[in-house]
């Protein structure tokens, strides 16, 4: 069972922390987009992340019991590369969350497959957590009567 939401065919390297990442050039190739369009999309996401208010984050945290991290410094890393002419060009290194934010707006077969893979992994994870919770709940119900305080007195 594979719960890794990062497409292996877009894995370019491991970042300094050992996390899988890709870059905007690989995304442009994979999704048949011009690199400047992918760069524009990333910049728009970064700008939009900066416009999210604390109250909007609080609402997400309350709904999901999880505080979303909108600090884009570790998700979208501004780097450069040398093109075929030897000129330095802009590029972004993308960790999984950044990649997901970027391609969720894309259309086409490849994008649809990425989204379907994401949903399948999420549903599998949800099912596993539900099963684990049920087994913990059953174990607790079984053990609780055996752990009453009067047995320890």
Descriptive overview:
By secondary structure, the protein is α+β, with helices and mostly antiparallel strands. The protein contains five helices and four strands. The chain has a four-stranded antiparallel sheet with strand order 1-2-4-3. Helix 1 crosses helix 2 (35-50). It starts with 12 loop residues before the first strand and ends in a 10-residue tail after the last helix. Residues 149-153 have low confidence and may be disordered.
Radius of gyration of CA atoms, rounded to a whole number: 21 Å
Shape: elongated
Query: Could you say which structural class the secondary elements and strand pairing correspond to?
Result: alpha+beta
Helical proportion, percent range: 40-55%
Strand order of the largest sheet: 1-2-4-3
- Helix and strand succession? EEHHHEEHH
Strand content: 5-15%
Terminal CA distance reads: 47 Å
Low-confidence stretches: 149-153
Biggest β-sheet, characterized? 4 strands, antiparallel
Helix count equals 5
How many strands appear in the DSSP assignment? 4
